[in-house]
Specification:
- By secondary structure, the protein is an alpha/beta fold.
- It has a single domain, classed as Nitrilase/N-carbamoyl-D-aminoacid amidohydrolase (4-Layer Sandwich), CATH 3.60.110.
- The chain is built from 5 helices and 16 strands.
- A 6-stranded mixed beta sheet has the order 5-4-3-2-1-14. It has a 6-stranded mixed beta sheet with strand order 6-7-8-9-12-13, with helices on one face.
- A hairpin with a 2-residue loop joins strand 6 and strand 7.
- The longest helix has 17 residues.
- The chain is globular, with a radius of gyration of 18 Å.
Amino acid sequence: MKVAAVQLAPQFADVAANVERVVETLEDLAGRGIEFAVFPEAMLTGYCFDSKEDALRVALEREGPEIQSLADAVNRTGCAALIGFAERDGDTLYNTAVILSPKKPPAFYRKTHLPYLGMDRFATVGDSLDVYEAGQAKVGVLICFDVRFPEAARTLALKGAEILCVPTNWPKQAIVTSNCVCPARASENQTFVIAADRVGVENGVEFLGYSKIIAPGGRILTAADHDQEEILTADIDLDEARVKDPVVIPGVYELPLFSGRRTDLYRVLSEDRSIPK
């Protein structure tokens, strides 16, 4: 399967320009044979809003013409896509990604872990971790800060995700997440990771870049620079993500990463505990 991580600089609060940019990019990617592309967090709207009211003025509704325009582009080009945006549901704000696959209705994921940063300061948390179809792949979504929680990534892997998609707006201080956390999630869960960050500066916040496509086991297939727009592409074999207990040397060096889990020791994970003192 041919996949892409799209590292762009969205136009803040200019939805029309950003939708047009995504459509143009999808047409270009389809011409290169790309089957699935991950775009950055908040690609359609921007991220660094100063108030909930400002964010809601720009935020999109799921059934709006912008999402329909993108669905039409996916149907026309045949290139599935995951695209981030600020979502408005009445007076409620969400940090959302839409998953678009040819000839299928749009699916939506709402960010489930929120930092005190950008529009996330005013957003409501999502309440589900699901696996979606994107082309021929089963994908899970972890928007930016979500990837810092290993429990979320493992949940998606246990539900069958072959690709963990990380649309993100990493500020420049988040380099450890790009360089260490994302490869760790690929290694822990034997999944591909497609991390698509943005570049540029928005309302005083400088973004990191360093998008990546990572193979199961943590091997980096391709990586972007930190200060320029770039489209990363890779040919991936989804069968690699279906081997959860890899065997290096049969009978000598085997890694029971999933069958060897000690769930009897992990019960604390399901308890609502306070932060350790």
